[in-house]
Amino acid sequence: MSVGPGLTPDGAVAIVTGAAGGIGAAVAQRLLEGGAGVVVSDLDADRLAVSVERLSSVGGPNRVTGVSGDASDEGVIAAMISAAEESFGPVDLFVANAGIGDGLGLALKRLTPAGPEAEGAPVATAKVVILMTDGANNAGQTTPRDVAGLAKELGVRVHTIALGPRDLSNADGEQDVVDTETLREIADLTGGRMFRVKTTDDLIA
Length: 205
What we know:
By secondary structure, the chain is of the alpha/beta class. About 35% of the residues lie in helices and about 20% in strands.
């Protein structure tokens, strides 16, 4: 499975949350290899700095920048968008490597203006979200299907990535399973695609 072709043309601008390591860093690397300018974010500032240094060796120091903070904080998301616009230009792609419902909801809040109260706030112009998860939606206030419905209304296409060796539908009380069915529904409802990958190596294959 390849994240880049068809989703990240050369010169695209992307934001990737949860990118200090794991699937977030792997996707950021693939975006850089595809020619994108990338803003990476993570709650762990020290690990993020190490990730930015490593990613700079892939895409060059002028193609990646980091913003540390909690991706559930709207102020942090606004800072990511501002960093992207100042460094590379308007945001084309938002990669939400967070809770299935809340992660997508927070991205949508900044992908389209919320009304007069949003005037003057950094708002991305992207119409594509990549939602990644290696688990089920077991936390947060927003249901994935409700947020997917909002994305459809706003004209935002959501591509989903289900990462993990086992599906929730086939699990019998097992831990560390991924809710593939919900991710497929989100993608189908918004006109996106669902990608099923078993390991992080598949993300850059």
